[in-house]
Amino acid sequence: MKTNDHKIRNYSDVLAAQYGAHGTPERAEFDENAYAFYVSQVLLDARKNARLTQSELADRIGADKSYISRIEKGVTIPSVATFYRVVNALGLSVTLQPA
User: Fold this and answer.
1) Which domains does the chain have, with CATH numbers?
2) Does the model's pTM come out above 0.85?
3) What's the rounded mean pLDDT across residues 2-30?
4) DSSP the chain
């Protein structure tokens, strides 16, 4: 079993070693999965903060409870339109700005 040696590393180098350099199919898959997980956690936290159940949120956007569950587990990445419906249903807004 490999253990942590407690050395500080450049995280970009760690990701490149594990998943490949930017632009490789392996890294693209990792980035997509990481994005799905991040979005799922943001939406899960927002739903809980709004004190809504998955069923209530699903009703507000015209979807099934199982669809909300799949989004929150990172299994399904919502379309942009669905993402905005969820955001609006949770009383949130999205701001786009230059990086």
Assistant:
1) 11-78 (1.10.260)
2) no
3) 84
4) ----------HHHHHHHHH-STTSHHHHHHHHHHHHHHHHHHHHHHHHHTT--HHHHHHHHT--HHHHHHHHTTSSPPPHHHHHHHHHHTT--------
